[in-house]
Design brief:
This protein is mainly beta and 458 residues long. The protein is built from four helices and 29 strands. The chain folds into five domains: 51 residues, no CATH class; 108 residues, Beta Barrel (OB fold (Dihydrolipoamide Acetyltransferase, E2P)), CATH 2.40.50; 100 residues, OB fold (Dihydrolipoamide Acetyltransferase, E2P) (Beta Barrel), CATH 2.40.50.140; 69 residues, Nucleic acid-binding proteins (OB fold (Dihydrolipoamide Acetyltransferase, E2P), Beta Barrel), CATH 2.40.50; 100 residues, OB fold (Dihydrolipoamide Acetyltransferase, E2P), CATH 2.40.50. An eight-stranded mixed sheet has the order 13-21-22-19-18-17-20-23, with no helix packed on it. A five-stranded mixed barrel has the order 1-3-4-6-5. The chain starts with a helix and ends with a strand.
Length: 458
């Protein structure tokens, strides 16, 4: 500024400041700092500023077109390296990172050999790093992206820093709002962590982790982490454990505001690695479209559990059988049986039967657990298509049922909607593995899950 005032004495500082604002408005948001605009204004006025642009800057100062910049940041998350093909058929490597400082957060792309810099995979959320001689380009939306190429580097930075720690930027999940990106949120696990399988638009099979976090004010937010498996999660996670998601965005889904992450998202959960043998009675069994067997079981303390058998270890067992096994994973009331799980039938007499496990309708309360109920259908199931906020049409079946203690709506969404189609008014049904949630006017409603089985009582 002083140099330009010296070269153009006819201009006042106020005049130049107004020119800076006009230049930034003309170029558009996200491209220019005040100093960058000043260099363009000097060129417009026919003078050259000999001082170089500041190369060491904070994330709020970066702009598209900046070169050889150096930044001190902290790591939020590091993505796996991927190989891509150029139009000419040649291959290249690319790894993405997300970094932050005291002002904001930004994406970093590491190209070719920089995607596998020594120690890059050992970086953890919150680690201090120095990005050296990087350049800035824009993404498809015009946002600045930091690029680390052949002349650039990323190095661990062990000096003391004023950049806030990861704990300092962690928000309670109840405070999240629409259209937020690169969040770090924490909460209490509400229910279990489960893995779902899906087919993407390319026809490729994928998996996603699904969970719910409860905030300090009781708000519950659903979270989906795409293309992520349970490899980084403790094998034993109790209900009510503390959890933190690092690197997620907010999105409005079918059930309201949701958190969405991807393979770069880090999920931290309180838990352990030691798994004890489990003894359970099988209450019901069904199968997924992918061939896995889903069991509803009950433990000695009457706790109902969902057991996913991906190894066919229970294929010869039926409802009523008592089994003893060593699970591969336990997340709250969800248990996984895999190839390393030894399953055997046992004669234990201490495990409740289905009749002893059933809950009366008056005692069904919203919770993160499951229930087994027996009731008569007062109103035949009705199936209809519901239009979601995203424009998707989904099936919903609902039946009004009661026992001698109360009445409740029993509902099934999507694939579970067909579980009620075969039943009519006046029939008595036994239902295993339903959950309960608050419905209209605060009334509790029962919902079928992937583990649920509905059978007619003679």
């Amino acid at each position: 500024m002083n140099k330009l005032l010296e070269l153009k004495p006819e201009l006042a500082r106020k005049d130049i400041e107004e020119m800076i604002q006009k230049k930034k408005e003309k170029i558009g948001a996200g491209y220019l700092t005040d100093q960058g605009a000043l260099f363009l204004i000097a060129s417009d006025l026919g003078v050259s500023l000999s001082e170089p642009l500041k190369v060491e800057m904070s994330l709020k100062d970066i702009y598209v077109g900046a070169k050889e910049i150096t930044l001190e940041t902290r790591v939020m998350n590091v993505y796996p390296a991927r190989q891509f093909s150029r139009k000419d058929g040649s291959q290249f490597m690319l790894r993405n990172m997300t970094v932050y400082d005291g002002d904001q957060r930004a994406k970093v792309k590491l190209w070719d050999e920089k995607a596998n810099l020594p120690g890059i995979e050992n970086l953890r959320p919150g680690d201090l790093v120095k990005i050296i001689k990087a350049y800035v380009k824009s993404d498809l939306k015009g946002n600045p992206i930091i690029n680390v190429g052949s002349g650039s580097s990323v190095e661990p930075n062990n000096i003391e820093s004023k950049i806030p720690s990861l704990d300092a930027i962690t928000d309670d999940v109840s405070s999240v709002k629409e259209n937020q990106q690169n969040l770090v949120v924490s909460g209490i696990l509400d229910g279990s962590i489960r893995t779902t399988e899906f087919t993407n638009f390319k026809g490729e099979q994928g998996r996603a982790l699904q969970l719910r976090l409860r905030g300090s004010d009781g708000t519950i937010i659903r979270a989906v982490i795409w293309n992520k498996d349970e490899g980084s999660i403790p094998k034993v996670v109790n209900s009510g454990a503390k959890a933190r998601l690092i690197g997620v965005n907010t999105k409005t889904g079918q059930m309201g505001l949701e958190l969405h992450g991807d393979e770069g998202t880090v999920l931290e959960v309180e838990g352990g690695k030691e798994i004890a043998p489990v003894v359970a009675r099988i209450l019901s069994a069904t199968k997924t479209d992918y061939g896995s067997r889903l069991l509803v079981g009950v433990l000695e303390d009457r706790k109902i559990v969902n057991i996913a058998d991906a190894s066919s270890a229970t294929s010869d067992l039926k409802p009523g059988d008592v089994i003893e096994f060593l699970p591969s994973k336990m997340y709250g009331n969800s248990i996984t049986i895999e190839q390393d799980s030894h399953v055997q039938k046992t004669d234990s007499q201490n495990i409740p039967t289905l009749a002893e496990t059933r809950t009366k309708i008056r005692d069904v309360k919203p919770s993160d657990g499951s229930y087994c109920i027996e009731a008569i259908i007062l109103k035949s199931p009705q199936k209809r298509e519901i239009q979601t906020k995203t424009g998707e049409a989904v099936s919903l079946s609902e039946a009004f049922v009661e026992d001698d203690t109360g009445q409740i709506w029993l509902k099934g969404w999507r694939a579970q909607a067909r579980l009620l189609e075969q039943f009519t008014q006046g029939e008595i049904i036994s239902v295993t593995g339903v959950t309960a949630k608050p419905g209209l006017e605060g009334r509790t409603e029962a919902f079928l899950t992937a583990y649920s089985v509905v059978t007619k009582k003679n």
